Amino acid sequence: MIFGRSERGKPPVEPVTLxxxxxxxxxxxxxxxxxxxxxxRPLRTEELxxxxxxxxxxxxxxxGKRTTTVAMDFGRITLREDLVLYLxxxxxxxxxxxxxxxxxxxxxxxxxxxxxxxxEDCFAAIDYFERRSIPFLVGVNCFDxxxxxxxxxxxxxLDLDEDVPxxxxxxxxxxxxxxxxxxxxxxxxxxxxxxxxxxxT
Length: 201
Description:
A 7-stranded mixed β-sheet has the order 2-3-4-1-5-6-7, with helices on both faces. It is α/β, with parallel strands linked by helices. The chain has helices at residues 30-37, 98-104, 123-131, 151-158, 174-200, and strands at residues 16-24, 43-48, 67-80, 83-89, 109-114, 136-141, 166-169. It is globular, with a radius of gyration of 18 Å.
């Protein structure tokens, strides 16, 4: 950079920053999702699971889980030179849901991660975003050994509207997560455009 300008003579690009939430049930892969794609070291607020939490933390299906998010995960990814996403992973357990209102302030949209072995765990997140008119898509995290169901079966099981996208993903792989994030940005932009049009007509 020379005097605030790039070497090619173009002015520096001031990127647009967008906030995306990553939500879903306990142990669905939210922390892994954020960590897989973040270009900075993710901020994590994880604590060890304890005996005291055993009665309220249902680890069936995720028996190997040893930690849990108690506030949020935070990461950042640059999709284009002029577009940066800030990712906020929400805590999954009900006792930490008071954080959701704070985290959702100013969010463009959300990813609801789902595990087909425990689909009921993402009902609360879906209900939350529907009630607040926050556009979201459902990312079905393809865990090893989990049965792959057709999109329409997942849509019916979750009682989703036809315009809510459903995508298969692997929260461990950067490109898969990036594809989901591109999808939620596109969906949120289209959702906002439809709302503006409905207001003006």
